Amino acid sequence: MEVEEKTLRILGKRGRVTIPQEVRDAIGMARGDVVSFAVVGDDCAQVKRERICDNCSTEPPQMIKLLVQAMHLAENSPQSQRAFEVLTGLSPAQQYEYVAKIIADWAERVHED
């Protein structure tokens, strides 16, 4: 599905731009999605929604443990152990939802700096 009209946005002082809602809707982009950027011409860049875990061989609980440990700078802290216990007690759909929210919240905090 293509967006029929060109939509303009202003690049902010920190180099940020909001991807228009109609573009996000057209490609199924949602909060927490990972996007890649590639230069495809002298004045053209491609923004693509990525699927980080296509054909992953890592089991979901192990992936969650790795995420939680990374969030705590790979320390074996009580907080990361507790987060792992909570997340592994959820259904796979709930795990996905919460991990996506954790990543989205983390990304927003990082970009606020």
Automatic annotation (TrEMBL):
Domain of life of the organism encoding this protein: Bacteria
Residue intervals of the SpoVT-AbrB domain: 9-55
Keyword line: DNA-binding
GO terms, molecular function: DNA binding
InterPro entries per the UniProt record, alphabetical: SpoVT-AbrB_dom (IPR007159), SpoVT-AbrB_sf (IPR037914)
Name under which the protein is recorded: AbrB/MazE/SpoVT family DNA-binding domain-containing protein
